[in-house]
Amino acid sequence: MNVSDEQSYLKNITGYEHLNESEFLETNLGSKYLPLKLKVPATVVYVVILVAGVVGNLATCIVICKQRHMQTPTNCYLFNLALSDLLLLLCGIPFELDQFWEQYPWRWGVGICKIRAYISESSSYVSVLTIVAFSSERYLAICHPLRRYASGLKVPVRIIVLTWLVSLVSAIPFAHYINVSYIEYPPGSNNYSENSAMCMMQKENIPEFPLYELSCFVFFLLPMAFIAVLYVRMGLRIQNSSLEHSVEGSVHGETRQAQSRKTIIRMLGAVVITFVICWAPFHGQRLMYVHLEWSSVADIHTWLFLLSGCLYYFSTSVNPILYNVMSAKYRNAFRETLCCYPATPRITRTDLSSVRDSSAGCGLGTRTGSQVFRGRNENYQRSIR
């Protein structure tokens, strides 16, 4: 600790010498327990998201594995997306629920703290890269059908392996810099209170290179712009194709295929919209944590934390809902696989097209921020998990 840091620390603890340990921790970390009016609704919402996400994503994996006609390149990506979403849910929500009911101390040790942050961060990167991959696959299939590869699932599997390798490497800095932090008590004693343990990345431990900014740009802004461009070009291609068919008097089958592709584009458009809605508050909160002083925006941060958390985890459970709402082929496959309901025997050209162009969901990302409620200066501060 240099001289300026020591002077700042002594200034902050002045007047706290008369406080006992629990009072001192509450002054510096905020209340240990959240009010019931906040944690009960939050718990209900998180439990619903957890159950729906686990059941829905497991069902998606089972359907794609058991239904041979569902094993297409796009559905291979969707299987990977469901897997990464499952990891996000299981590594995130249980620990957040624990923190809702007791903010500190962190009782799971340094190892679990780092592993949880690493898996969550890397899984979120996998989700984003997977969406980019199957969006590109749909773009090639619609806009450049003659160039589409004809190697079955070999290429998608290789791309999926690559997304995991890139994500696992990119998430290493978060696992390195996150740690279990403690507060010194009594002040100036060089003793640290075990009751103050929190799994977080403190501001003073954030590296000098722009870790948060790079994460936001590489795994949010850049993919969002890329996907939006692809979907706009796909939409224009389908629109032009429909006009050509109308002028030339296309056959009934071609018209149905064009209509099927329009349906696919509408659903893929929902991917972009949901992607932005689910992730913009999360990345916004992260950047606010790094660049702003919370004493001036405490109320905004409180609501942004709650909103970004709900949307963040909702993004991992919404994909199976989109599949069933927007794809008749998925609904039939789900009923046949999970409910032993016989599939409709009539297969049209539209159905075959739907299998090839099976729908894509909104996926996304990890919540790598751990909730920390600072006392006077940083209310409801989100740290990095």
Low-pLDDT sequence parts: 1-14, 345-385
What are the secondary-structure elements, in order, as H or E? HHHHHHHEEHHHHHHEE
User: Proportion of β residues?
Assistant: under 5%
As a whole number of angstroms, the C-alpha radius of gyration is 24 Å
Shape: elongated
Structural class: mainly alpha
Instruction: For the record, give the distance between the C-alpha atoms at the N and C termini, rounded to a whole number.
Output: 25 Å
Structure explained in plain terms:
Strand 3 and strand 4 (381-384) form a beta hairpin. The model is unreliable at 1-14 and 345-385 (pLDDT under 50). It contains 13 helices and four strands. Helices cover 68% and strands 4% of the residues. It is mainly alpha-helical. The chain is elongated and about 80 Å long. The chain has a two-stranded antiparallel sheet with strand order 1-2. A two-stranded antiparallel ribbon has the order 3-4.
